Automatic annotation (TrEMBL), chains A, B:
Bilayer-spanning residue ranges: none
Keywords: Decarboxylase, Lyase, Pyridoxal phosphate
PANTHER family found in the cross-reference section: GROUP II PYRIDOXAL-5-PHOSPHATE DECARBOXYLASE, MIP05841P
InterPro entries: Aromatic_deC, PyrdxlP-dep_de-COase, PyrdxlP-dep_Trfase, PyrdxlP-dep_Trfase_major, PyrdxlP-dep_Trfase_small, Pyridoxal-P_BS
Designated name of the protein: Related to Aromatic-L-amino-acid decarboxylase
PROSITE patterns: DDC_GAD_HDC_YDC (PS00392)
Species annotation: Pseudozyma antarctica (Yeast)
Cofactor: pyridoxal 5'-phosphate
Pfam families: Pyridoxal_deC
GO biological process, one term: carboxylic acid metabolic process
GO CC annotation: cytoplasm
Length: 542, 542
């Protein structure tokens, strides 16, 4: 495709996207296809000769689109939202036109510098303390691809920091690793300084690279424990699984709204320490997936402050954007988030923050904790600017080398919406969720109940017919089957809560959703509850 | 921005991108800015009130663009290419318009199904054996974001498989982890089957989740060793660093073109086993970064076949796309790649494969090796289709939960170019690199020499004036400084090779590069060599 071909194809794609959004509400929310549907339409190999663009473009709309579940649909209330904005789409288009792997400052200075500035914009918007911003000199952060990547990245840094603090007699070595000719593990700083990277390599070059592992030999890693609660997202357990470390899910109760208390944490630490384990990280959550629970951060930070080997990460993947709303900051424990005991914080702008997937800003109190754990600099990645210590190479704060230019979409969205528009989006969404909650609470036959305090735009409910004895768990599984059968009309998500059991989540998040969409979905949910109950009652009594 | 606003802004962005490509050759290749340049143009906080799109769009071109190093520029010969195509840009635009996190089949069936089909298309294009395709039933793969992510993901699977094979008396447990109500680590299969995920949770739910760690307690992980060579990309050492495992860089020599031999590998294994270490993974490379070296796969697979705990991964991040060229398959050891000893293979389509960053297809012989190491399924991620065992949820083959719709750009590019066009792009590029090589070899004053056998589109050279005694290392560092000072005109990369030392890489890769661009750059390089030498000689003699 040449330049004029792209102009034509680009205009056409823009028109198609306009048509898509104009017709979105009329489309089935969830793809109505069967597993394996696509293989009937797509040959088993790439074509030998290139095809005309019009044909390919048409196939996208006729072949791919029927298998797309429309997360931007006004009646998509599943999981957490995955916002799209036109501004974000334009940013992704521009990024694709200047595709580059952005690993070092010099390979595209704007990619690095805009990211540092945008992480600061997000931090200020959320009310994070100066310590979490790049302007503090030590803090700041990076934009990663997902909360999972954040959890793993932070866990690596937490592990290394814990081991360093417990084994000060074995400081982190600068490893002359013999790889790629001249190279070093620039582990002690996030900007390599001249000379230090220039270790010469012996001719045999067969040494084992990770000499830092020597200090692990005492078996310390096998004693490390990561904490979360039974409500923490599985990103925590998965990070522990990947690193081969223990994850301990601390108990929370319905009575305390599934919030981790300081007492529970303190008891777990005492118990583990007595058993010779080393608690190295706690992932506390502001807004759990199943119920929107908020861990008791004011209590937690007091406990963590007494345990310097424990890294405290705040996972606010869904709800964190609401720290931009002054009226919610107290409830969301902003003061505790900003206390010195908190090492890192992350929210996903790609959920409810109007920025396309993927975009997970991570704020850390000490950027050096990341770079000490993650920096490796072979000769072919050295640059004049990094050698001079003048720049930050973001690859040293993350797992991968290459990285996308994610900050552009943040810049586009926050400028186009302004803080005012960003906050309005969140408040409007919450009002819609409140409306759903009110309709549910006011429902006459009393078939439904709300099972956890609704927060932000999340309402968790289940069937529990008033004054009727029945197997509530089975009833709700039947209810879920009946709701899921209507996925062309709306999408919800199943979950399960301690002391409650099976229940159903409703989350508003799409900027497309309006009051009438919520009312229309509520009507279908209420009708379904009636029909499920009628069927369930008759089959139970028969 | 509303729909009509997007139509206008979208057309304008397409026009701007057309202008960009039309003017690309006139732009400075590398950004001519100083560290910190961007903070002067961007306020410290997001605006309170939204701004007009025209202003934002203009700022992208006037503020961001000067800080972009143009990897698509015809005179970009640095690192490895990071191709962009118009087709890929259109795919990214479409993906952004239907933003979704694609973690399960059901959350967008097309995202999962097209990816499985495209991984097969790529595998067939490269001549990979049926065992690496989804149609084999056990093989197939996934598209990840980078070769780093591939190396880490594969290392996790290799670690788990090694431990399982060494401790058959402790089979991998299905862990009822007490997280998020009802959940399980569906570790034994990549499709959860009904019933198995429905483990009930005890009321205390305080158990340590990773009971699989019990079998690690014998200290096995501290004995694991990953192999590469001194020329293996640092993705290997970084994966080992992240997992806290040893990486051993095996020696290679200039005489054998930096290729790992079977004898070197066998000797290392014997040595490590005698010391009680457990070799669990080898990353062999087809096309190293510094010199394009090819490890001796025919020898390596024979050694690996005798060591069932050793996972053999082929990193062909740069060169792998050239397996699409029948004339290069023998030299690239396709037969050995397809032998049973090879567990996984990966190339980056986002380097030389016309697909925008990021796009790293990973082919594995047994998908179950990934899912056994990486699956965790809480209730809120369960689906009817997965419970029924009918679908593959790609989150179970990767580190993160969410994932981008990367296969769309593969589909667009391979259909629009066809295999013929894809191959033509590679062959044309290699001819241009050959032309640079010929010009260099024919250079009259004999100031330059090629230091490693040129392969694909990579030429590695340095200054070594014929018949002149001098400090070659210092001369080349001075040469590099002089070359780098011309980064507005062309971009190269420094590296270092064993027995050679400091040298310079020239890689063609942009579809924009034509013969006259290469000749123009060659002239500047040749002139620079003359002026560096004149200055160096006079300062040495003074």
């Amino acid at each position: 495709m040449d330049i004029e071909g792209f102009r034509k194809a680009g205009y056409a794609a823009v028109d198609r996207i306009c048509d898509y959004y104009a017709s979105l509400a009329e489309r089935p929310v969830s793809a109505q296809v069967q597993p394996g549907f696509l293989s009937a339409s797509i040959p088993t190999s790439a074509p030998e000769i290139g095809e005309a663009w019009e044909r390919i473009d048409n196939d996208y709309h006729s072949v791919i689109m029927p298998g797309i579940t429309h997360w931007q649909h006004p009646n998509f209330y599943g999981y957490f939202p995955c916002n799209a904005s036109f501004e974000g789409a334009l940013a992704d288009l521009y990024c694709a036109s200047i595709s580059n792997p952005g690993f070092n400052w010099s390979v595209s200075p704007s990619v690095t510098e805009l990211e540092i500035l945008m992480v600061d914009w997000v931090g200020r918007m959320l009310g994070l303390d100066e310590a979490f911003l790049s302007t503090s000199g030590t803090g700041g952060g990076i934009i990663l691809g997902s909360a999972s990547e954040v959890a793993l990245t932070v866990a690596i840094a937490a592990r290394e920091r814990c081991i360093d603090r417990l084994t000060p007699q074995h400081p982190m070595p600068t490893v002359h690793n013999g790889m790629n000719g001249v190279g070093s593990l620039d582990a002690d700083q996030d900007v390599a300084s001249a000379g230090q990277s220039a270790a010469e390599v012996g001719a045999d070059a067969t040494l084992v690279a990770n000499t830092r592992l020597a200090k692990w030999r005492g078996g310390l890693p096998s004693r490390l424990v990561m904490y979360g609660t039974t409500q923490t997202h599985t990103i925590a357990a998965k990070a522990a699984l990947i690193l081969g470390l223990d994850f301990r899910a601390l108990p929370v109760s319905a009575e305390s709204s599934y919030s981790l208390s300081g007492a529970t944490l303190a008891a777990a630490i005492a118990e583990d320490v007595a058993l010779g384990r080393v608690p190295f990280m706690l992932i506390a959550t502001i807004g759990t997936t199943s119920s929107g629970a908020i861990d008791n951060l004011p209590e937690i930070v007091e406990v963590v402050a007494k345990h310097p080997t424990l890294w405290l990460h705040i996972d606010a993947a869904y709800a964190g954007v609401c720290l931009s709303l002054p009226e919610l900051r107290a409830e969301m424990h902003l003061d505790a988030i900003n206390s010195a005991a908190v090492d890192s914080f992350s929210t996903n702008l790609h959920k409810w923050g109007l920025v396309q997937f993927d975009c997970s800003p991570l704020h850390v109190r000490d950027r050096g904790d990341l770079s000490r754990a993650l920096s490796i600099t072979p000769t072919y990645l050295r640059t004049k600017q990094a050698d001079a210590g003048n720049v930050l190479d973001l690859r040293n704060l993350q797992i991968s080398l290459g990285r996308r230019f994610r900050s552009l979409k943040v810049w586009f969205v926050l400028r186009s919406y302004g803080l005012e528009g960003f906050r309005k989006h969140l408040r409007t969404t919450m009002q819609l969720a409140n409306h759903f909650e009110s309709l549910l609470r006011a429902d006459d036959p009393g078939l439904l109940e709300i099972v956890a305090q609704p927060r932000w735009a999340l309402v968790v409910f289940r069937m529990k017919p008033k004054g009727e004895g029945c197997d509530v768990e089975q009833l709700n599984k039947a209810f879920w089957d009946d709701l899921e059968a209507q996925s062309a009309h709306f999408v919800l998500t199943q979950t399960s809560l301690p002391e409650v059991g099976f229940c159903i989540r409703f989350v508003v998040g799409s900027p497309q959703t309006q009051r009438h969409h919520v009312e229309q979905t509520w009507k279908l949910v209420a009708q379904t509850a009636r029909s499920t109950w009628a069927r369930f009652k008759s089959s139970s009594s028969s």
